[in-house]
Specification:
By secondary structure, this protein is an alpha/beta fold. It is built from nine helices and seven strands; from the N terminus they run H-H-H-E-H-E-H-E-E-H-E-H-E-E-H-H. The structure holds S-adenosylmethionine.
Length: 249
């Protein structure tokens, strides 16, 4: 897929991008060109995002790689325009990244970009995350896909025992954790915390909700349940509703 001429090109990379991405800067710039061009014309990102693609999108996502060990398997839920999944795959060629995205138009765009950039460490899967019963990875990432309680129901079942979910969130990260903690724990989530990543690279740093899943629960995850939530999830939800009611009183 050859990027066509565009009236609003990708701005030059900021100094932080050059320092942070090293040898991968050229490939990341080529990805940014796709975002600024067909990403906009195909409706995957808004035209007003182009001037801030580096800070708000590419670097905001690239800093997640600080939390990834060498050669890990990563699944990115709701990749959209490859954020953060493609950014992670480009920044860290040692990783294998599976992009999970249900919308055909977006999947086609992602596949074309991967072909054009010759990315051999990416698999694109057209599916809703909750229907991906045969995926098992070390890390599940996501950005701007769903609230934490819903998102954890989609993400945690994709993890191997001992794996972790990394959800990029905005300033509401801690509030969402407080609200969803019971749901997360009912799904086997442990060591739930909000991390601030990328100080000195992006401003503000990226807020990431990190949740680990323990061995026992990973194997008996409610993922396979077809209809709605598990009894423990329902109990957690009732507790949360009760807590919210008490707060209102
Ligand atoms: C607001 S977009 C965010 C895209 C990208 N992560 C970003 O930060 O720009 C949400 C994406 O999640 C996808 N999505 C919605 N429900 C999903 C599900 N159940 N499983 C996987 N992806 C889903 C949508 O198709 C959409 O591409």
């Amino acid at each position: 897929m050859k990027p066509r001429d565009t009236s609003e090109p990708l701005p030059p990379p900021p100094a932080a991008a050059e320092a942070y991405l090293g040898d991968q800067l050229g490939l990341m710039t080529a990805f940014g060109d796709h975002l600024a061009d067909t990403g906009v014309s195909h409706g995957l990102i808004g035209p007003r995002e182009v001037p801030r693609l580096w800070d708000r999108h590419i670097l905001n996502c690239a800093v997640v790689t600080e939390l990834l060990a060498p050669e890990e398997r990563v699944a990115d839920v709701g990749s959209g325009a490859g954020l953060p999944g493609l950014v992670i795959a480009i920044a860290r060629p040692d990783l294998h990244v599976t992009l999970i995205e249900p919308l055909l138009r977006r999947v086609t765009w992602l596949e074309n970009v991967c072909d054009d950039l010759h990315l051999s460490n990416v698999t694109v899967v057209r599916s809703r995350a909750e229907q991906c019963t045969d995926i098992e990875v070390d890390v599940v990432t996501s950005r701007a896909v769903a609230r934490l309680d819903t998102l954890s129901g989609w993400s945690l079942p994709l993890l191997r025992a001992g794996g972790r979910m990394l959800a990029l969130k905005g300033s509401s990260a801690q509030e969402e954790v407080d609200e969803a903690r019971a749901d997360l724990e009912a799904l086997g989530g442990r060591r739930i915390e909000v991390l601030s990543v990328g100080a000195g690279v992006v401003d503000p740093p990226t807020a990431i909700v990190r949740v680990e899943i323990d061995e026992r629960v990973a194997r008996t995850s409610p993922k396979k349940k077809k209809n709605g939530s598990s009894p423990s999830r329902r109990a957690a939800r009732r507790k949360r509703q009760q807590r919210n009611e008490n707060r209102r009183k």
